[in-house]
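Researcher: Before we compare anything, I want clean individual predictions. No alignment, no superposition, just each chain on its own. First chain goes here; please echo the sequence and then give the structure tokens.
Model: Echoing the first chain and its structure:
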Amino acid sequence: VQLQASGGGLVQPGGSLRLSCAASGSIFSFNAIAWFRQAPGKEREGVGCMSNNDGRTWYVDSVKGRFTMSGDNAKNTVYLRMDSLKPEDTAVYFCAAERLGGTKWTDPKGWHYWGQGTLVTVSS
């Protein structure tokens, strides 16, 4: 299984970006999809998670109300819409699939498959 994240770039504070995560197989065959990010010198942190069983989503407090996950079956893609971006959102963003049992969704060790990262830079 290969995951492909894309859509990163340079955006001004207050701007928006939409990241995409595609899979080599059906991305909706996994039990869940998550987005993580890692800023320079910091640990990888969970940003959002979406259950493919019932479509429920969860977000870390720092992005609630600004970031939204969604999926498109026809395009076999999961998206992370990011609005009202702040400089502190600058990071490499990764998508992950297939949540393992016994861990919080925010724990990177709890995910089986990872895509390569896409860089998001929020700066004026």
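Researcher: Okay. Second chain, same rules.
Model: Second chain and its structure:
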Amino acid sequence: QVQLVESGGGLVQAGGSLRLSCAASGRTFSSYAMAWFRQAPGKEREFVAVISWRGGSTYYADSMKGRFTISRDNAKNTVYLQMNSLKPEDTAVYYCAATNLYSTSSFEYDYWGQGTQVTVSS
């Protein structure tokens, strides 16, 4: 079993940057693909980015390409989301999630963190 704890959210002005972290418990972190999802008020949970088990493959939602970067450090059991050029529409609760698959679908993810709030002011 994996427990996930996100951190790094906060309030930032449009055009600014934030780096989210997700710390995982357990010895098998490197056997999981990791992803970030987000959910804005009144909207469905949305895929943001996914990274493969060793970090060799990444994939982003179209609206995040070129602005967000997902990375992982298996020695630290941590996955990161660097967010640049933030926009007010990026405001949401951001969740990290773990799965044995490499997927963009939230239904494929078995483990979830509690989420961290990101608010981008205009």
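Researcher: What stands out in the second chain?
Model: The first strand starts at residue 4 and ends at 7. Additionally, DSSP finds no helices and eleven strands in the chain.
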